[in-house]
Amino acid sequence: MCLLHELLPMDMTVGCILLIVAAVCAVVQVLRFIFADADFTLLWAASFGLKPESTLRGRVVWITGASSGIGEELAYQLAQIGAQLVLSARRENELERVKRECLGRSRLHEEDILVLPLDLLDRKSHEAKTAAVFQHFGKIDVLINNGGRSQRSLCLETDVEVYEALMELNFLGTVSITKTVLPYMVKRGTGTVTSVSSVVGIAGAPLATGYSASKHALQGFFNSLRVELAEYPGITISTILPGPVQSQIVQNAFTESLHKSVWQAGDQQHKMATSRCVRLILCGLANRVKEMWIGQQPFLLFFYVWQYTPTLAWFMTGILGKKRIQNFKAGLDADSAYFTKPKAP
């Protein structure tokens, strides 16, 4: 560098140094992105922001869809933190199982966990269910709308009743619960309402036209609601958009008809671990992140491409979508198209 200083004018030497520093920073950012499993805002919150252990301890958290998958893991990690829980889903026996596991993993007591069976389709019951939570705990600090079902079927083969069921469950069920809880939060001037959406809430994916539509609807609803509540800075409205995560969402997905189940879910091990997804969610909630993109590559890339370069996104989706449909028709897990060579039907 001393020799470079002698040969080049001072301004050229400084320019070279700045260029090298910029190149190094660019390489570092590219490497970070390659190995990232969430958007940079959420990763920053997870590394340097407030910790869930300090911000969520003692809070009353209502989780819908708490009997399996992301909802179940949320219950376990929140219990370990010390949050008080309301566990809701249709299957009461499964909720009781989750409650016992929560008690075994934490220092919570029986009265710290309320098992509250809930059917998102029975919207007339939601006010009474909300009242039961307030009767037990006196407040709701965080509502996590996690209940819902996915879809695995081609549009041309799918009954309209399936689309109706997806919108009733994923969209209107979530809106209904939110509307019963929100007035209490507005009255207190504080609270968090979050909804587990999906990467297909901002992108498009074959085999999930109805599911994607319901998640797009949630995006529009919560984005608009967030603006409506701008005069209540203590209330946080956030959405969570995971890519593929290890859960039972595929096993429970709708197919082309209401009463036909997925015949084979396929291996789910290539997907993100549920524990990692939930940890990121809790970090986002602790730091009031408004939108959380969670996914391993190439799904994280999808978020950024769809957000910033939609023309390129259509090109990429067309290529990968064909592989997804090929695997589906061959009887394989549709998502495995992103990780394995698709088989011919």
Automatic annotation (TrEMBL):
Protein name: Dehydrogenase/reductase SDR family member 7
Family to which the UniProt record says this protein belongs: Belongs to the short-chain dehydrogenases/reductases (SDR) family.
GO molecular function: oxidoreductase activity
Sequence intervals crossing the membrane: 12-35
Gene3D superfamilies associated with the record: NAD(P)-binding Rossmann-like Domain
UniProt KW keywords: Membrane, Oxidoreductase, Transmembrane, Transmembrane helix
Signal peptide start-end: none
Pfam families, A to Z: adh_short (PF00106)
PROSITE patterns assigned to the protein according to its UniProt record, in alphabetical order: ADH_SHORT
PANTHER family noted in UniProt: DEHYDROGENASE/REDUCTASE SDR FAMILY MEMBER 7-RELATED, DEHYDROGENASE_REDUCTASE SDR FAMILY MEMBER 7
